Amino acid sequence: MINNLELIKNQANWCLGCKSRPCSNACPMKTSIPEFIEKIKENKIEEAYNLLIENNIFSHVCSLVCPQENQCQGSCVRGIKSTPTQIGELEKFVNEWVVQNDIKPVVSQKQIKKNVKVAIVGGGPAGLACSYELVKNGVKSVVFEKEQVLGGILSYGIPDFRLDKKIIDRIINILKELGVEFRLGQELGKNISIKQLKEEYDYVFIGIGAELSSRYKLANERLDSIYDSDEFLRAYNFKNFIKNLGKVVVIGGGNVAMDSARSAVRMGAEKVSILYRRDRSHMPAREIELKETLNDGVEWVELTRVNNANVKDGKMVSVHCNKTQIIDGKAIDIEGEEFDYDADTVVFAIGLKPNQELLQSEGLELTEWGTILVDSNNQTSIENVYSGGDVTENKSVVCKALASGKKAAKSILNKIIEP
Ligand SMILES: Cc1cc2nc3c(=O)[nH]c(=O)nc-3n(C[C@H](O)[C@H](O)[C@H](O)COP(=O)(O)OP(=O)(O)OC[C@H]3O[C@@H](n4cnc5c(N)ncnc54)[C@H](O)[C@@H]3O)c2cc1C
Ligand code: SF4
Question: Do both 339 and 249 map to the same domain?
Answer without folding.
Answer: yes
